[in-house]
Amino acid sequence: MKNMIRSVIFDMDGLLLDSEFYWQKMEIKLISKVGIDVTPEMQKSTLGFRTDEMLRYWYNFKPWDNPDFKKMEQEYEKSVLDFYLNESELMDGALYILDFFKDKKIKLGLASSSAMFLIDAFLERFKLRSRFEVICSAENEEYGKPHPAVYLKTAKLLGSHPASCLAFEDSYFGLLAAKAAMMKVVVVPDHRRGEDPRFIIADLKLNKLKDFNGKEFERLNNNN
Fold this sequence. Notes:
Elements: E1 7-10, H1 20-32, H2 51-61, H3 69-86, H4 94-103, E2 107-112, H5 116-125, E3 134-137, H6 149-158, E4 165-169, H7 172-180, E5 184-187, E6 204-205, H8 214-222
Parallel strand pairs: 1-2, 1-4, 2-3, 4-5, 5-6
Helix pairs in contact: 1-3, 2-3, 3-5
């Protein structure tokens, strides 16, 4: 059948790893140091961005004197690394969904906006490296999500046409990136953002990963 699902590509933060709340907390803390009071509502504009793009966004929003983006990026990501290594937990259903596709012998990829050293920390902490045939970071692309580059790269390395890939995302910008890459997308948003009307472009929206089942897979596989 045309465009049957041959590969599945996962986002990491907020989808497999319960870390989005920490990223957001540290973003508020970091940006407050340059005089910008960021609210959770305002963070909808940066959710899913690479760190460098997040910093550029806030600088364009309200420029500050003598910006040292590299230093701020290192401070931000060092704190997140400590969290990954010592406190982070898998999202409920993360192992279930990986096992679901392993049982179907479908190739798996990871496509994250996070830096590769953070992805490595995640994979090592939870012993998940062997689960993925391909692991890609948007840090190696000219643009991060919502640009589709990291999804297109992951599909290419998996040896699959993008239209034969299913992506799992939690954020709107991640969803947009995968859709721009011509992929089918399952979105599993945080409960605080679940009613965002922009998620209507997803092929399927779930409350949790464990809600995905064989019936949903067949429906997506037959919906070309």
